[in-house]
Amino acid sequence: MRWNLRLAAANRGIWKASELQRMLAEHGLVISSGKMSGLWSGQPISVKLSDLNIICAVLGCGVDELLIPEPDKVHKTTDQQPQEQTGTGPETVTPRPRTGRSLPPV
Question: Is the separation of the CB atoms in 33 and 84 below 8 Å?
C-alpha cells in the first residue's frame, strides 16, 4: 500500500502539514509534530482506524484516496507450501529437559 495523504490534501488546497494538523485538532484528533511529519512526508508504520476516519472526514475523501494498493509489490512465496495434517488431531509434543538429554522411554 502507498500512503497518499499529501496529494489528497493538496487536491483540497491544503499545502502545509501544520494547516492539516490544526484542522484535525479542531475535529478532536490531536497529533504531535513528529507523528504529523511521518503522516505528511512518509510511509507511516501504522494508522489507527479512528484516526483514519477523522482524516477522511476532514479531507472529505474516502480511504481509497489515502491508501493506494500496489499489487505488483506483493510476491508469492513458492519455497514451501503448508503441509496438510492427517486429520487425527493435534500432534503430541514431548517436552525435553534443559540439560539437552532425552527423556527415558515411556
Answer: no
Please, what is the average pLDDT of the chain? 85
d(CA 49, CA 42): 18
What CATH number is associated with residue 45? 1.10.260.40
Q: What is the mean pLDDT of each run of 10 residues along the chain (106 residues)?
A: 93 95 96 92 89 96 92 79 59 72 73
Determine the straight-line distance between the first and last CA of the chain, rounded to whole angstroms.
Answer: 53
User: Is residue 92, in this structure, part of any structural domain at all?
Assistant: no
Phi, psi of 49 (to 5 degrees): -60, -35
Strand runs labelled E in 11-101: 67-68
Which residues are CB-contacts of 41 (< 8 A; sequence separation ≥ 6)?
6, 17
Range of the domain at 15: 2-73
Inside any domain, residue 90: no
- Tell me, what's the pLDDT at 99? 72
User: How many independent structural domains does the chain possess?
Assistant: 1
